[in-house]
Specification:
63% of the residues lie in helices and 7% in strands. It is mainly α and 111 residues long. It has a domain at 36-75. The protein starts with a strand and ends in a 7-residue tail after the last helix. The relative contact order is 0.15.
């Protein structure tokens, strides 16, 4: 199976990694309010406590991990071997056609 990004996700990975690494240094001015059941809140509080983190630290860390994974998943196309070969042939055919038309054409200075 071949995987390749539709666009460069490294930029997002770096930005999220930097955000996590510098979270303690940045002045936090944005908020997200979440509604949840009492049981969901207890689970989050327990997980944060077991991890030795505040609820905000634990939640932000897990939200950023999930965001990064979603961005990566949406930016990656997975093809079977057969589909990849077909895709590569289609690209080659289009490239050959464009090159042939270009090579047969006249330049601006040729009039």
């Amino acid at each position: 199976m071949h995987c390749f990004p539709c666009y460069d996700v490294r930029q997002y990975t770096v930005q999220i990694g930097e955000a996590m690494a510098t979270a303690a240094l940045d002045r936090k001015t944005s908020r997200i309010d979440l509604r949840m059941t009492d049981e969901q809140k207890r689970q989050i509080e327990t997980a944060a406590s077991l991890a030795g983190a505040s609820i905000s630290q634990w939640s932000l860390s897990h939200l950023l991990e999930s965001a990064q994974q979603t961005i990566t998943d949406q930016a990656t196309v997975r093809l079977s071997e057969e589909s990849f070969d077909e895709f590569a042939r289609a690209l080659d055919q289009q490239a050959n056609l464009v090159f042939t038309e270009f090579a047969q054409g006249k330049t601006r200075w040729e009039g």
